[in-house]
Amino acid sequence: MTDTLRAFSSPWAGHPKGSSEYRRILYALACAGVATFAQLYSPQGILPEISESLDVTADQSALLISVATLGLAAAVLPWSIVADRIGRLPAMRLSLIAATTFGLAVTVCPNFTGVLVLRALEGAALGGLPALAMTYLQEEIAPAHTAVAAGTYISGTTIGGLSGRIVAAPFTQWLDWRWGVGSVVLLSALAATAFMLLAPTPRGFRRARGEDRPSLVYVLWANLRSPQMLVLYVQGFALMGGFVTMYNYLSFRLQAPPFLLPSSLIAFLFLAYLAGTWSSRRAGTIAGTRGRLSVLLVSIAVMVAGVLITLVDSLPVIIVGLVVLTIGFFGAHSIASGWSAARARVGRAQAASLYNLFYYAGSSVVGWAGGVVFIHAGWTATALLVAGLAVIAGGCAATVLRSR
Fold first, then answer.
1. Which family does it belong to (predicted)?
2. What is the pTM of this model?
3. Which residues contact 104 (CB under 8 A, 6 or more apart)?
4. Arithmetic mean of pLDDT over the chain
């Protein structure tokens, strides 16, 4: 009896790698990544068709991505507060149910303004997943294996982003863009159901009592005043903003001369996401032996190289550049997102949420601004903008994160 009480009262060490609970958590979060990012980015590969159907310009149609990611960015902190009270897993479940509801509403909304509002609400609902996934991993998995686990979760998000684009395109060509988006919502609902069935009962979550819980202002300020945490947040803003810009406007470039590709073929370019599926997990594995900073900097350099390769007016070369870009981005994102949760000294859920706030704010702000640059100055200027942001992010990381 004494041994049982001692085991119950001892600090939770996390599920070890190889245990059935460890595997269930990874599979569950991979499904959650599919459910979240398939919905979030399903319009990206069919923006030209949406632009034509709703009679809006290229940068206006890209707002379907920007408002969703902006809604997600705005919601990550509120979701972290909800999760501190009801638990990480219940909050993530609620997030996916709400997102599926708003996603279905998008498919029947008749006008562009209404679609934008519903996309913003869908993004806000989806904010519960990326806001809490890293915190959930840190609480439930043994510390020695969290970098690999984080990489596995990020690889699931790449599968989600890929499947959303690949599934939406053929339905859009055969029917219209609403059927394309709707098919992705149904796919996401299946993935969300798998997440709910697979995720084991949490053991690491401890609900703080009111008098023991630090104020939100204190927690946010404690993380924002840390130069190291702030630089990690800059990684999310700059790298994600550039990455989304490249994928947002590549469709428009490839549908124009000299390429003149149909959207059904352009959608297959998103298979480059599979390279990110590999690199995100691989980056987490290498970081365990080489250190996070070196992997982050190399990943950023690879991303810049990929961006510059896309400047060549040759489809095979552009495809190579897209693959290289994707490898670098997801490697860097895997490291920065996991590092922000692991490094937090107070308010781990809020620290991870701040990373996601910057990450999706970059997607919204830079993703839209990149469209303005693309319309007025062309692809070369857009690519140089993305490369410049990545160089700034890498310079900040090399300067500030070198000292622990």
1. Belongs to the major facilitator superfamily.
2. 0.71
3. 182, 185
4. 82
For 15, phi and psi rounded to 5 degrees? -70, 130
What is the per-residue DSSP string for 163-216? HHHHHHHHHHHHT-HHHHHHHHHHHHHHHHHHHHHHPPPPSS--PPPTTTSPPH
For 20-55, write each residue's pLDDT tens digit.
888 888 888 888 888 888 888 888 778 888 888 787
CB 389 within 8 A of CB 241: yes
Tell me how many domains the chain contains.
1
Residue at 9 is within a domain: no
CATH number of domain containing 129: 1.20.1250.20
Residue 399 burial (C-beta neighbours within 10 Å; 0-12, 13-18, 19+): exposed
Q: Domain range for residue 301? A: 17-204+213-400
Contact yes or no for 303/332 (Cβ under 8 A): yes
Amino acid at 37: F
What tokens appear for 262 in the block? 């149909």
SS3 content of the chain, % helix, strand, coil (to 5): 85, 0, 15
